[in-house]
């Protein structure tokens, strides 16, 4: 049996920004250090990352604000200057004297001969790299115009950017831009990984995410409450060898419902993905006009267009939605499947058009063992909000979807979120090459196959999403992102599931 036993590393956990701020001081104290020392370590870590990113860069532009994030920036600037780099430090209010540890870092910069200037766009022409220390994790309102203007200018340039803790202007908890946010090439996040950096637009704005615990990770882990998990394929143990005396019935009977006339490809992708993931028997119930297209070239699939009730009785779990459509045939099939699975409490994966049909029902269907797999558009229809609302606060709406249907919600996209009402996880794998027709159909088949083989909904949803995304990463590493087809994932998934 598979499990998701996490390592003790904080790199597999997510922490809200306020949780980090509340406990980093005590974590430092328990680690026999101070917050000023953490600031020094943060600045040094940022400079180290800058050197790794651009070892030939001789001119740095450091943008500082007014809080502790600025203190980290002053330390990074000092490290760069000590290494012989030319460093320009710019602030929105150059004459403002900072307080606390940030003030100490600022004064050290001045005492060493450093100057603080007002930002000028011309400085970007000289710089080989920008360190972004304008705004930290404490912002909770739309940013001021003077910050927005700097951010716009930096984003319009081609100069690489390293952000400290969070790209300036990004809500560290939700990943929502607070009017404007820096588009970083690298973000060095400190003490704990913030959830907004791992999904949606936040993941895009972060670029490469680098985690530094600043030497207090062990103590911090005993004090702070994680917001969720950050899933990596290495966190999942093997499915284990199959029993010698097992047979096809041992590994489940999966029914895939969809494939309306003219949309046979979607259900074929889902059903074949299930076979490649080890489901023992897979049957596709499709429109009569799609039988030949679904069965051609894959004789291992059982395909029919009649006796849906009998097929449901046969099945140990169900996938519904790929290529289903929303016409009369689709609505009848949807109603039959949903009523059966609700009355029998049968595991079900609801995807694609089945989600659109589900959104039309005033009374929500609820199941003990169900996985909903919406993208932002489908989630918006399920919850009666806009797509922009969903993408602006993906964690909130994934949870709302899970709560409304008492299901596990897999909110697809960059940094797919898995929420089961009680806990939340984000997949760290995946790439834009997977934004192609049929990729979601393959995912639904993978999830169905894992349920068919006896995995719990919690484990199947987390492992299935991670397996699907890591397969896409492996393909991208080998062939590149452009031109990836959904069916290319079959062999990659099969390889991974047998390696684990």
Automatic annotation (TrEMBL):
Annotated positions binding K(+): 69, 132, 168
Positions with a binding annotation for (6S)-NADPHX: 136-142, 165, 266, 323, 375, 441
Residue ranges occupied by any YjeF N-terminal domain in the UniProt entry: 20-222
Note accompanying the cofactor annotation: Binds 1 potassium ion per subunit.
Binding annotation for AMP: 412-416, 440
Assembly with partners or alone: Homotetramer.
UniProt name for this protein: Bifunctional NAD(P)H-hydrate repair enzyme
Source organism of the structure: Salinimonas sediminis
Lineage, highest ranks first: Bacteria, Pseudomonadati, Pseudomonadota, Gammaproteobacteria, Alteromonadales
